[in-house]
Amino acid sequence: MKDFLQERKTIRKYKKEHISQETLDYILKAGIRASNCGNMQLYSFIITKDEDKKKAYAPLHFNQPMVTQADVVVTVCADVNRFNHWCEINGADKSLNNFLFLNIATIDATIAAQAITTAAESKGLGVCWLGTVNYMADEISKFLNLPNGVVPVACLTIGVPDENPELTERLPLSAIVHNEEYKDYDDKAIKEMYKQIEENPTNIQYVKENNKENLAQVFSEIRYGRKGNEEFSKNYKEFINQNFLDKNCQL
Amino acid sequence: MKDFLQERKTIRKYKKEHISQETLDYILKAGIRASNCGNMQLYSFIITKDEDKKKAYAPLHFNQPMVTQADVVVTVCADVNRFNHWCEINGADKSLNNFLFLNIATIDATIAAQAITTAAESKGLGVCWLGTVNYMADEISKFLNLPNGVVPVACLTIGVPDENPELTERLPLSAIVHNEEYKDYDDKAIKEMYKQIEENPTNIQYVKENNKENLAQVFSEIRYGRKGNEEFSKNYKEFINQNFLDKNCQL
Q1: Which of A44, A95, B69, B211 has its CA 20 to 30 A from that of A251?
Q2: What is the interface pTM, i.e. ipTM, of the complex?
Q3: Whole-model pTM over 0.80
Q4: For residues B74 and B155, is the Cβ–Cβ distance under 8 A?
Q5: Does the pLDDT value for residue A185 go beyond 60?
Q6: How far apart are CA A228 and CA A178, in angstroms?
Q7: Rounded to whole angstroms, how far apart are CA atoms A84 and A213?
Q8: What is the rounded average pLDDT of the residues B226-242?
Q9: How much of chain B is in helix, strand and coil states, percent to nearest 5?
Q10: Beta strands in B36-186 (DSSP E)
Q11: Burial (0-12, 13-18, 19+ Cβ within 10 Å), A77
Q12: How far does the CA of residue B225 sit from the closest CA of chain A (Å)?
């Protein structure tokens, strides 16, 4: 049997098969069993299953086809709204609308999303994370009717796999792990650790198509270029200021 | 066999047994197999195993005993330093030191940390997440010798379990899940979903000990009170400004 923890792959193509409610509940329950700060469960899961809803949702994810093709789309949100409401009816202060708890709730929502991913994969389902959720937080918030205190953090498309791609390469473990303290890299170490990725024929082709000298330039100047990143950063900051942070805690 | 995805528990007490290097590598490899943005792998894992190092690290985690008792402590960091270095030697722009990529790298580091957690638990090991890493980012950064562009996001203590606690209660799945769009809660729904947690004898005792009227007040006014949260928010913001964000991208 394949080890689904060591050999997982992102799945972007799905069969037109439905996931049973029982399986979906199993997957989502794994999400709420994962660790979270003080057991406050500062997250919500928004399930998109309706075909028309998925069609309307797709443009907010740059029309990536996974949104309409997957049986289920799960948007995992950082959520202090529920907790705040509980405080309100108990005459308690609402103390979480600040940068610390934006970070903590983002982390807790991500933990839950990854637990959902693993549970889905353990059932033979395929999952794709859509990073677009971070770029389009404001628009997605409106689309999903998120109240103040709720921020979309992760978006997962889940379905029965209709592809079996090769395992994507990763940097060697030695490039990621530091013993006892961070040992910064010298040029030689960096060159060696990226060698395999740079020499991958798909990446060589990718550099050519983009008229760049090397893969690093394609990543940092085209795919994740400064101008776009700074614009999305500004949008995200504005969204957080308006929809999560107290007046005296603005970024 | 127990389903480790549905019945996982945080383990805070560990036997004095070592985790083999083979097992540790297995666990960490699961971390780097998980999804990440553009396969840029914007994370690093710092391993603390040395007894003296753990003793020195413990105060930065408010002296929680797990730090010294666990065989291994893994601090998972958001890391654009490695990627920036790769860009530098390739004459490429460094485009990730902004709020968008702080968020994305935080999420990717958390995904890896949760994948590490699940892999450890699949091997019968016990894990505890230390939220303190978010409160003490600056001090932890100095202790672990983190360069600019590296932010501690998650800290995991991992060891052979020496306890078997009860499954912690969670809000019912229906409280967390929203179908198609976010349905905000009315007072009655909030009261019902928190009922079981409020009636837990440990929590009733907890309210008494803290001289508060109810559990919500203990959480939002004592355990996670506004003053502390806002102070830690300010510290975290300063840390991020100095150690991650470009001059023109300051928060």
Answers
A1: A44
A2: 0.98
A3: yes
A4: yes
A5: yes
A6: 32
A7: 52
A8: 98
A9: 50, 15, 35
A10: 43-48, 72-79, 126-129, 150-159, 177-179
A11: buried
A12: 6
Chain A partners of B87 at a C-beta cutoff of 8 Å? Answer: 216-217, 219-220
Torsions phi, psi of A88, nearest 5? -55, -50
Are residues B40 and A219, on separate chains, in Cβ contact within 8 Å? Answer: yes
What DSSP string describes A69-89?
HSSEEEEEEEE-HHHHHHHHH
Distance CA A229, CA A240 (A): 16
**pLDDT per residue over A147-160, tens digit each?**
999 999 999 999 99
Contact B15, A147 (CB under 8 A): no
Comparing alpha-carbon positions, the chain B residue that sits nearest to A214 is B90
d(C-alpha B10, C-alpha A135), whole Å? 33
Rounded to a whole number of angstroms, the distance from the CA of B159 to the nearest CA of chain A is 16
Q: Between chains, do B236 and A100 touch, taking CB under 8 Å as contact?
A: yes
Residue B127 identity: V
Q: Give the tokens for residue A41.
A: 């469960």
Q: What is the pLDDT of residues A122-169, one digit of tens each?
A: 999 999 999 999 999 999 999 999 999 999 999 999 999 999 999 999
Where b means 16+ CB within 10 Å and e means fewer, A201-223 reads eebeebbeeeebebbbbbbbbee
| Residue reference for tokens 């005459």 | A91
> Looking at the partner chain, which of B7, B86, B182 has a beta carbon nearest the beta carbon of A44?
B182
